[in-house]
Amino acid sequence: xxxxxxxxxxxxxxxxxxxSPEDMTDIKFLTEDxxxxxxxxxxxxxxxxxxxxxxxxxxxxxxxxxxxxxxxPVFREEFRxxxxxxxxxxxxxxxxxxxLTAKRMD
Length: 106
Fold this sequence. Notes:
By secondary structure, this protein is an alpha+beta fold. The protein has 1 helix and 5 strands, in the order E-E-E-E-E-H.
């Protein structure tokens, strides 16, 4: 599902799904654990489906977590469609890259 993205310098640690914006028929992929990318300095991008698993009743969440503080994400967005989710991934990747660059400047 997320193979086309350049997550550098992140490392994809979880990505088992093949859902695409053109095909929403395979709803078995709609679960809380869809993608995780680990970055330097303790950042993680996490993508999941929140709502009723295996149904279209819910939203996608993209979170950026710092130092495993899941209760206080530094970025959190919701998306209702796979197309919106794909667009949101660009925002999340850009945000992590900005945070990493800002950290180097400290």
